[in-house]
Specification:
Helices cover about 40% and strands about 15% of the residues. The protein has one domain: Aldolase class I (TIM Barrel, Alpha-Beta Barrel). Helix 2 runs parallel beside helix 3. The chain has an 8-stranded parallel β-sheet. The mean pLDDT is about 95. By secondary structure, the chain is an alpha/beta fold. It contains 10 helices and 8 strands. It binds 4-methyl-5-hydroxyethylthiazole phosphate and magnesium ion.
């Protein structure tokens, strides 16, 4: 399990919910104990995305946490980030692997068993599945996967590292881990009370 290395909690940055620059969010998350963080940004221009990721990576390197860039293989490559997280409509994982090389962490989002099985045949380090529960953080037409389907995905993927995402909180993290997720990726449960964010990570790490 090279990509996750036993990490159970995989927080994702959100500039709108947190009200902080990505670099600051990384400091907050790592203070709570996170060691693998995804930088997710949906509204920057390429130039802004590049600049903010550069600043975020500087902080991540200083602190010693791994930083995965959402969507942008070009920016991950240009800045030598630890990896990328791709969705169904992004550059395919095989192309990202060609560009980033064997040591980059590549994660791929899936929304059902069939997509997850296909993903497991690709050159990825982890497969993400979601939304597990309904969530307002991402508008999408994909129905909630649910815990039962999550366990079916777990069984089908054997030892492929599996990240669950969507609607996961400190109240349900245990159920999600028990259903077979190796790790959980979380946005709103961390950022909704910004003054509590480091503490939230600590709590999540404790529950997981
Ligand atoms: N992909 C599937 S659900 C989701 C993403 C990015 C949003 C997760 O956010 P939250 O607030 O943890 O439900
Ligand atoms: Mg994407």
């Amino acid at each position: 399990m090279r990509a996750l290395e036993g990490r159970r909690v995989y927080p994702i940055t959100d500039r709108h919910l947190s009200g902080h620059a990505h670099a600051e969010q990384i400091a907050i998350l790592s203070e709570g104990g996170a060691t693998l963080i995804q930088l997710r940004e949906k509204s920057y221009s390429p130039a802004e995305f590049y600049e903010e990721t550069e600043a975020a990576l500087r902080v991540a390197r200083e602190i010693g946490v791994a930083l995965i860039v959402n969507d942008r293989v070009d920016i991950a490559l240009a800045l030598n980030a630890d990896g990328v997280h791709l969705g169904q409509d992004d550059l395919p994982p095989v192309a990202a692997r060609r560009l980033l090389g064997p040591s980059a962490i590549i994660g791929f989002s899936t929304h059902n068993l069939q997509q997850a099985q296909l993903a497991a045949q690709m050159p990825v380090d982890y497969v993400a599945i979601g939304p597990i529960f309904t969530t307002t953080t991402k508008s999408s037409s994909n129905p909630a996967v649910g815990l039962k389907n999550l366990s079916l995905v777990r069984q089908a993927l054997r030892d492929m590292p599996l990240v669950a995402i969507g609607g996961i909180t400190r109240e349900n993290i245990d159920l999600v881990i028990n259903a077979g997720a190796d790790a959980v990726a979380i946005i709103s449960d961390i950022w909704t009370s910004i003054n509590q964010s480091s503490h939230r990570i600590q709590q999540l790490l404790k529950y997981s």
